[in-house]
Design goal:
There is one protein chain. 16% of the residues lie in helices and 16% in strands. It is of the alpha+beta class and 186 residues long. It has a domain of 91 residues. A hairpin with a 6-residue loop joins strand 8 and strand 9. 18% of the residues are buried. This is Filamentous hemagglutinin.
């Protein structure tokens, strides 16, 4: 019964004739005494537009040629074993060089402090629209680097500790790991 009354009320409200707004009150002041200003005439002579800048437009990064040698997709994370198994595989030397060129990576005379086989890398590119590149940086020296579905993105089996070697890195900051204190800061 309530449903029928609700529907009847909504139907009545929908068919109600809308009221016209009240007329505005008559203005107490008369018409303005000042005439409207005359429009500014448009000049008939025009100057030519300045020539476009002589510097060429930058090349479209999405159409840049694919780098020679091994490549990676920008923004993706990769385990070293995946990079070594690609169509154009990365070598141990290239992975060690990428590891040691990463800022703050621990290397002893260009030798990585942890096992490169378990390293997790990220592919970085110079331009935001760029799809593929050849610049890898170390994210973590994992205890075990995983590449599992559904997304097949590289990740560490246990939380990453950047830095030294022993078991997946022991952290470069005196054993501190981000989020380990009560305040959640390092």
């Amino acid at each position: 019964m309530k449903l029928k009354l609700t529907i009847l009320g909504l139907a009545a409200a929908a068919f109600a004739k809308p009221q016209a707004p009240p007329d505005p009150p008559p203005s107490s002041s008369g018409p303005p005494n000042d005439p409207a200003p005359a429009p500014v005439p448009i000049p008939t002579t025009t100057q030519p537009a300045p020539p476009p800048p002589s510097t060429p437009a930058p090349a479209d990064p999405s159409k840049q040629p694919t780098p020679e040698g091994p490549i990676c997709e920008c923004g993706y994370t990769y385990c070293a074993k995946v990079l070594k198994a690609m169509e154009k595989p990365w070598s141990d030397g290239q992975l060690s060089a990428a590891y040691c060129k990463t800022p703050n990576a621990v290397c002893n005379q260009e030798t990585p402090a942890s096992n490169v086989e378990n390293a997790l890398f990220i592919c970085l590119c110079a331009e935001p629209e760029q799809k593929v590149g050849d610049h890898l940086e170390l994210l973590c020296g994992c205890d075990t680097c995983l590449n599992v579905g559904p997304d097949f993105r590289g990740r560490c089996k246990s939380p990453c500790k950047a830095g030294h070697a022993s078991s997946g890195g022991s952290g470069g900051g005196d054993g501190k790991i981000r989020g380990m204190n009560r305040l959640g800061i390092w």
